[in-house]
Each structure stands twice: as structure tokens, then as C-alpha cells.
Amino acid sequence: MSQHVKETPYWWEAAPLPECVETPVQKTCDVAVVGAGFAGLTAALILARAGRSVQVFDKQRPGEGASSRNGGIVSGNIKMAFSDMVSTFGEATAKAIYSEGVAARQDVARFIQDENIDCGFKMTGRFTGAYRPKHYERLSREAEFLNRHLDLAAEVVPRAEQHREVNTDLYYGGVVRHDIGGLHPGLFHRGILDRALDASVTVHGETAVEGFVRESDGFQVDTLRGRTKARDLLVCTNGYTGGSTPWLRRRVVPIPSQIIATESLPTETMARLMPKGRMLGETRNIYHYYRPSPDGNCIIFGGRAGAGTDDPEKKFRHLFNGLVEVFPDLRDAGITHSWSGYTGYTFDFLPKSVVQDGVHYAAGFCGSGVVWARWFAKKSAYRIVGNSSGAESAFDGRPFQTRMLYNGNPWFLPLIIAWYGWKDRLGV
What we know:
This protein is 32% helix and 23% strand. By secondary structure, it is α/β, with parallel strands linked by helices. Strands 1, 2, 8, 9, 10, 11, 17 and 18 form an 8-stranded mixed β-sheet that branches.
């Protein structure tokens, strides 16, 4: 990797991580929250505005995990196709789950507007390109299914017309979802953090939670900087879950994701490659997702490619080759940033807000944390304050599964990556 490529997120340029000021750990609080990302801070804000005293603990600086390392796509995506969900859960449940995704996206937009957060949010729509002709047929059927059952206005785009969406010959047409957008995740996180601090939430960065014990009237929580007694405990660590919360660690699979940012490109180049400024993705199993930066000056290009290696150079090369595969004209383009982060997946590919042994958990956002982290953190916060109607979700009742021999270390990931790669080569 070139020495000129920064191994830090592009988003940190406009939204540097906050410096951690050591604040004494309060001996008691109403709620202790583990994780200072989108989820933890959203819950903390709601709880504080409901009159609860809240302390948030993070082993890194606030937002240093997935919240400032993602692509900033506001999708609320469900990994299971709607038609498959109908077959699995029945039409009523499938409709309720997908409708909740719509509500969750709208909730993000409403929060940004109500709180006046300047994070470059735009409802751009998203184009998903079909990597094989059979994928186009599948996307078309799914779009028709969504339009018939949910009225989502999914638009089928044949190959002859796809250049109006993305200027590449790689795909065989695709589908546009108009209810999906994008934002600057670093600035979005900063906005949530600022509002939480204004609401008197105490945020302890670089303060790892080392363990906790349930007692008759709450939890004793031990941290790197001291102990607190909390009536309620909420864990929002997702793909960064450590050994101090073993129950969650056995149920969330950390999946690495790599992203690169190009140098500033000419305005005419950006307009030619991404005519409508959409969020973009594809149907490969080892897929890429990409978008214009919020200011429209460069391309943010990410994916699971290279997930089978820990070598930053190999990850970078994998992803750059993917960029050139989509846009051959960019083979000589400079790259300014290359970084990685972890998403948190569940074994059934559905996000969760659950209570186990008195501990509240919001996690398993499956690569769509910009939307689902906020949404399920809200559900957990409402449950803590006793707002039962606000806590209800169509996802309730789905078991938070684990697997035999799984302890948080995804030893099976290289095998899955190899399997997905084989399927992609065969066009499956």
C-alpha cells in the first residue's frame, strides 16, 4: 500500500474522533450503557431525556468502532429476501418486518431533521446491480413481489438502461429502491454524541467494562477506571463485543469490512460514473457497496472482499481491483484512505433487542447499523423506561441463536468466504 494512503477512515477528516477527557466514574447511576456508538448513544439520549442518570462506557474513543467506519448507507436492509421471508415466517410477519425497516429509515430522517444534525443526509435511492443474468431475473421477481405486497416502488432497470444509474458494463441490469439514502456517518455520530452530552449523559471513552455481577437491585459494573452500581445495564457492542459479555459474544459474529476512498475526482467524472448520485451495490455473495462521498467529490468503495486475510495490503489490493472491475477508467486513480471495521452478524441474519438474565442487549445489525443500531437501541431504551408500546417490534420472539463450539471467534469465516467465492465464480 502506498505510504500516501491513510489507514484511517475518510470520515475522520471532517469528523475527528473526540479526545477522551478522564471523568471520574460515578459510584451509582440509573443505567450503565456499554458501547458509545450509534446504538449506545441513541439509547443514552432517550434514557437521559426520560429523566434517567446514564453512564456510557467504551473501550475505545466514542465512535471509533463501526459507527465511524461504515459506508454511511441508510438502508435498514434485511439479508433475507422478502419472498424467502414470506415462505419462512408467513406473509403477515414478513410484511411487518419489512415495514419496520421503512419506519426505521424514516426515523433516522426525522431524527436528523428534528435535532438539526448536519451530516449530509440525502434520500438518494440505491441501485443494486445484477452480477449474472439469472440474478437480474431474481431481482425482477423480488421487485415485483415487494411492489405487490408492500408498495415500495422498486424500479427494475434493464441492462440497456443501467448507465443512467451507474456507468459500468459489469452488471446485467438491476433494481432501484427509492426509499434508501446516505449520510456522513462520522458527522451523524458526532451529532448524537453532542445531543447526549447536552442531555447530561456521562460518556467514558477508553474505559473498558471488565465485567459485571447481577445483584438483587441492579448490577455491579467493573470498569478500567472504577466500579459503578447501575439499576439497569444495556450492552450495545455489536461487532466489537469482548469477553466481558460472554453471552452476547457467543451470538454475534464479527465480520470484517474494508473500505477505500478515491482521491478527489473531476466533477465531470463523478457525473459520468454516478449520474444520479445513488448508493450502489450488487448481487455477488462477496459483494461490493459504493457511493459518492456526501460532497460528491470522490468515491467511497467497500466490501467483504479480502475478509479472509488480516494483511492490510492484500485487503487494499482486493478492494482496489474491485473498484477497477466496476470502473475500468479508475485504474490510475489515486486512493487517499483505506480502512477496515467490524460488522456484527447474527446466525439468522435478523437484528436483535433482547433481555437475558436482566441485561438488555441491542446488537446484530448485520451490516445495516446506520438504521438498525438506532432503531433497536430505541427499543431497548423504551423497554428500560417501561414504554411497552414503544418497545414492541415485529422482530420480537425470534431466538438469539448461537452455535455449538462458537465462543466469539469466527474460525469458520475463511471456509464461508471460500464457499461464497466459489458460488460467485459459478454465478450462483
